What does this fold into?
Amino acid sequence: MAGGAFAEAGADLELIGISKRFPGFTAIEELDLRIPAGSFFALLGPSGCGKTTTLRLVAGLEEPTTGRILIGGKDVTNVKSFKRPVNTVFQSYALFPHMTVLENVAFGLRRRNIADPVGKAHEALRLVELDHLAARRPLQLSGGQQQRVALARAIVNRPALLLLDEPLGALDLKLRRQMQLELKSIQNEVGLTFLHVTHDQEEAMTMADTVAVMNRGQIEQMGAPEELYELPKTSFVANFLGQSNLFTGPVTSSTGSSIVVDVAGVKVEVPKDRAQRHAGEVTVGVRPEKLMLHTSAPKQSAGSNSLGPGRVTDVSFSGVSTQYQIAIPGIGLVTVFAQNMVFGPVVNLGSAAWVSWSVEHGFGLLDEPERAPRFAADTDTATIAMQTRHELLAEIEEA
It folds into this structure.
């Protein structure tokens, strides 16, 4: 942090009208985002969606094409990265192999002439429960321990904003889940603002207070993890954050509380307060774990939807649950997650099956049919090559 000061608490982050264009494509388009001070915020999305570019803009490693970046109300758009109250934890850890753990953590404090760097480094190591390994070198530690050293090195500076760039990606599944809980606990204790960039849905939902799902340079939906999972607004969010069964059809009737959609001749009811659109051609959905699997046609009852009969085309055992794929004529494949309450599958491959679910578990999307790519290429290959050549010549002249 500039001037050798320590942050007492996290600062809020605000991105106003941010866009970032590279030769040939747009990475971020008109992004507006506000992250409250002291929160754990996750930016979730697939590779190429713009999430890492957003993190690099906040860190000062890239300059925005348009827009402003404010940290704690102060405009830092044109402030150099080393002068911003920001630290980053990378997936690679980037620890100095020739230094001890303690020296790694104290390194930044010494560079900034902070008083008592060793004492503060020990305090940070105690926070991540590694002070007993202070004399070891990074190569003598496990992957999880190295990750915690990198975290201690980042938080020892008390940055107002801590950026986490896929920090758990190199860990095995069990250790990753353990570190998810530990990271959340540490964030609660130190009170800093965490911005976590990840493509791991479980990671985002486990740790973050708020999740923003990013797609093609824009945020498709933002909210609490449970809200995004239970009420996705677009097919991208519905399928990226977990799995969903989606059905499309026209709205044939409605009441004060629900709409009825014709799905291949079958009436599917969805609550109005869980649907984004109430007329015309709509897409409705239900999560696989909300479905009940039946070996005979379920009785029609108020407050319940059902589809079938279909044929079981795949049975996959995953430990806690078994996944069934059921091909229903006119509708396609429907996925069911059934908890393993008994030994062996409930229905076998090739068997006839029906599915049902409670009306209150359905949701309706805002989506239209498949859209064209959001960004068209704005320069051809020859133009990009010429621009790269000019940049290289400029670097040679400066040298």
